[in-house]
C-alpha cells in the first residue's frame, strides 16, 4: 500500500505514539524543577530554621564632627576648637592657622574628643584636619573657619625695662602699659607670665585700667635672667575687645646694689652683693618745709642725666624759695624731685649738715662714681627723716608690704 492509502486507524496510532514521550518528558521535567526549588524543612539553603545562614550588616565607618562648623565666619577667638569621633577613635587632629602655625590641643582618655588649648588669633583663617580609625575603616575630614575682627584691639604699647642688653637692679619692677582700658583684668592678667632662673614669688598690681606692674615679694635674686611674656593674642579683654599680638622680653638682673642713706649721720654706704664698695659723705634736705624734707623709705634709681636743670616746683622767679640750679651727674630716685647728684657748692656741709632742697648731694668725684655705676632699679634706702616716700611716688613700690601689694591683683583670692 502506498503512502497516500493509509487508513484512519493507522493515523491515530501514529499520533498516539508521538504524544506519549512528549507527555512523559513534561512530567519528568516538572518533577525535577520541583525538587530543585524545595527541600525538607531546616535543610541547608532554605533560609529558614535553626541551621540557616545569615549575613551581618556592615560596620559603620567613624563619624567625625568639628566645631566651629565648616565655613563659619566671625568665630570668637576665645572659643575652643572641638573635634569628636563616634564609631571609632581619633588618631590625628591638626588645626593650622595663618603662616602655618599649629594650634595645640589635647585628646580625652578615650581618644574620642580633642579640644584646643589657648585662644585663636583674631581675623584669621584656620584649617582643621582630623583622622579617625575604627572597625568600619578609617575616616578623614577637613574643615575651615574664620575668626572675627575685633571692634577694639588690645595691644601693649610700652614695657619697662625694655632696653636691649640693659642690666637692671634687684628692685626693678616690670611695668606694662596698654593702648586700651582693660575691661576684663583677670583674663588679661592670666595671659601675663614672669619666669625666672631662680625661684621667686611675685604678683601684679593694677595701677589703673591701662597700667599694671609686677613686683616680687622680695628683691630679685641677683645675677639671673627674668623673662616676661604676654600671650594676649585672642584674649577677650572686654566687650568686643581682643588682644591681637603677643609680646615677650627678657631683662638681666645684675649684682645686688643697695645704697643706705642716713640723714642723721649724713652718710651714704653703697654695697654690692653685700660688700661695701663706697662710703660717701652727703647732705640731705634741710627740712625747713615738707617740700625740703628728703623722703624716708625704699627708693629705686630711675634715670640719670648730666647736666640736669632743677627748678623749684610750683614757684616762679622772684617767689620766696624759688631756685634754678644746673647740676651734674644726677640720678633720679623719685618723682618729687629727689636725686643723688654732685654739689660742689655744699662740700663743706657734706658729712656734717643737711642743707639741700631735698636731694642727696655729694662730692663731685663720688657723685660721678655713683652716676657711672648705677643701674635702673638699684635700691636706695633712706632713713632718718619724718616724711615717708609714697608708694606711688616714682618707683616707690617697695614701700607697700607684699601682702598689701598683691591685693591690687585681679587674681588675688
Automatic annotation (TrEMBL):
InterPro entries: Big_10, LD-transpeptidase, LD_TPept_cat_dom, Transpep_catalytic_dom. It comes from the Bacteria. PROSITE patterns: LD_TPASE. The keyword Transferase applies. One of its GO terms (cellular component) is extracellular region. Keywords: Acyltransferase, Cell shape, Cell wall biogenesis/degradation, Peptidoglycan synthesis, Transferase. Residues 257-383 form the L,D-TPase catalytic domain. One of its GO terms (molecular function) is peptidoglycan L,D-transpeptidase activity. Residues 51-62 have a biased composition (Low complexity). The active site is at residues 341, 359. Residues 37-62 are annotated as: Disordered. Pathway: Cell wall biogenesis; peptidoglycan biosynthesis. GO terms for biological process: cell wall organization; peptidoglycan-protein cross-linking; regulation of cell shape. PANTHER family: L,D-TRANSPEPTIDASE, L,D-TRANSPEPTIDASE YCIB-RELATED. This is L,D-TPase catalytic domain-containing protein.
